[in-house]
Amino acid sequence: SAFSFSKKTQRKTPDQFIRRHTGPGGTLRSPTKNETPPEFPDEDVTPIKLQQQRGGKKKFDFPAFMERPNPPNTEFRRFYERGDLPVQIEHGGVHNRIAWKVAIDKLDFHHYLPIFFDGLREVEMPYAFLAEQGVYDMMQVGASKVAPVVPQLIVPIKTALNT
User: Fold this and answer.
1) Residue 94 pLDDT > 70, yes or no?
2) How many C-beta atoms surround the C-beta of residue 6 within 10 A?
3) 18/100: higher pLDDT
4) Which residues 6+ apart lie within 8 Å of 72 measured at CB?
5) Distance (Å, rounded) from C-alpha 121 to C-alpha 116?
6) Which of 13, 22, 59, 145 could in theory staple to 109 by disulfide, Cβ–Cβ 3.0 to 4.6 A?
7) What is the DSSP letter of 125?
8) What is the rounded distance in angstroms from the CA atom of residue 160 to the CA atom of residue 116?
9) What gap in Å lies between CA 87 and CA 151, rounded to an integer?
10) CA separation for the pair 131, 72 (Å, rounded)
C-alpha cells in the first residue's frame, strides 16, 4: 500500500536538488538529454553573479526574460509627433485624460480609427495611453461609424496582436 513502511526511499541530499536559475522554466526551447545543469560551488553563486564576475559576458540567454524592444515607429507615433492628431493629454490631479480638440462624432473615422489601432503596438508613454484611450473613446462615441471601417482595421489589429 502507499502508506506502508515496507518500501524505503532515500532522502535527497542538498546537492541533488535543482538550484535557482538552472531549470528550463521561462525558456522557449526544451532541454536536451545531454544537457546538465551547471555546478555551483556554494549556494550564494547564481548565474547572474557569475555573469558579473566574468565581466558582463552572458552565459544564459532566456528569451522570456529579455527586454521587449519598442516597435518600429508606428503611424500613430509619426502623426502624433507631427501634431496631426486631434488629441492632447489633459493632466488631472488623480489621473490623466484625453482632451479632444475636435468633437469625436465629427472625426473622419476612416482616417483616424486605423491610426489609433496601429498605436496599440506602442509600449512607451504617452503613445500607449493616447492610443488605447483614443480607441476606447472613438468606439464608445461613434459606435455607428465603426462598422464601415472594420476592413481597414484588420491589418492594424493583426500587427498589434503579433507584438
Assistant:
1) yes
2) 5
3) 100
4) none
5) 10
6) 145
7) T
8) 11
9) 24
10) 16
Residue 29 contacts residue 62 (beta carbons within 8 Å): no
Number of other CB atoms surrounding residue 157 within 10 Å = 14
Contacts by 143-148 with C-beta closer than 8 Å and gap 24+? 145/105, 145/109, 146/109, 146/113, 148/109, 148/110
- What is the total residue count of the chain? 163
Contacts of residue 60, defined as CB under 8 A and 6 or more positions apart, other chains included, come to 21, 47, 51
Contacts of 64 (CB under 8 A, 6+ apart): 26, 27, 28
Instruction: Give residues with Cβ within 8 angstroms of 94, minimum separation 6.
Output: none
**Residue type (1 letter), 102:** V
- Compute the average pLDDT of residues 65-74: 70
Q: Does position 41 have pLDDT exceeding 90, yes or no?
A: no
Please report, for residues 11, 33, 47, 92, 105, the alpha-carbon distance to residue 37 in angstroms, rounded to integers and kept in the order given. 21, 11, 11, 52, 61
Give the Cβ contact number of residue 51 at 10 Å.
14
Q: Which amino acid is at 25?
A: G
Examine the pLDDT at 54 and tell me if it is beyond 70: no
- Tell the residue number behind the cell numbers 546538465, with chain if given: 36
Please tell me the predicted confidence (pLDDT) of residue 100.
92
Residue 98, strand partner residues: 89
